[in-house]
User: What shape does this take?
Amino acid sequence: MHSEGQSPHLPFGDQKGAPWRGRDILTVKQFSRSDLDYVFGVAHEMSVMVEQVGAIDLLKGKILANLFYEPSTRTSCSFMAAMQRLGGAVIPINEVKSSSVAKGETIGDTVRSLGCYADVVVIRNPEVGSAALAAEHAITPVINAGDGVGEHPTQALLDTFTIREELGRLDNLNVTLLGDLKNGRTVHSLARLLTRFEGITLHYVSPPTLRMPQEVVDEVAATGIAQTVHESLDEVLAETDVLYVTRIQKERFESAAAYEEVKDAFVVTPETLTRAKQAMIVMHPLPRVNEISVECDDDPRAAYFRQMEYGMYVRMALLALVLGRA
Ligand code: CP
Assistant: This one.
């Protein structure tokens, strides 16, 4: 849905009229630094509200259609929880095989139809560009919950909010992205979003076959942010403020043999953390497989479950903003 007089290519703060109401959220490229400060301020207010009263009626009468063509626990459930904590309702479509998608209905017709019942559509689909395609046809705002190996903008927003809440700053940080940087859409969005801040250095640690795509590296380089590339975590661990671990994305590999070659390339253990700063955090978008051992979970630096909770507050803020109620 593109509102009259507004462009999907401009930051929210540069839009005419009500900058957020009715807008799609398709890519982190839509967010300026001041947009992020605003979203994070609203997300923080949401966290205080949940702690004090649990839920309010801000979105009473509003309905979210949650359209997931790929599996999800966190993104799907946190959008549902976010809507319910704001007094709204949800149409959950977590198994598209039981919808008319199974009869061959297009994304365009599906989101157009959902707009007859709902006020906002959240979509996850395996094709890059699918959320943008949905937005072209939708009569409601569309929020991208992951388009294949493309982007996962609300994850990057919650990741950045997590860093702000946990470390108290978003400037002057060494951020190490570890694992499957080729196929992990969360790191594509996060690297782009961190270019909005000052004094960030991005360290990419991966097997040679799973490096950060050149397109992302070039976009980040154009902003002047420093980037380094490594095959060993030891080269950057001691200076790391944020260690962002990702799963090797088995479902994106062309063969089982190719996956087997790299699946255990990096495993973070308590021993790994003995060589890291005390004032650092370990993040992971989850789900994890083997890449962080469960023995790390009780380390106060392990922020990945707190990260999930921050995600609900960010998604509450985004829903309130695009529905014109923040
Ligand atoms: N982080 C994330 O996108 O998790 P889900 O796949 O469970 O939604």
Remarks:
- The chain has a mean pLDDT of 94.
- The radius of gyration is 19 Å.
- The pocket of phosphoric acid mono(formamide)ester is lined by residues 72-76, 155, 285-287 (CB under 6 Å).
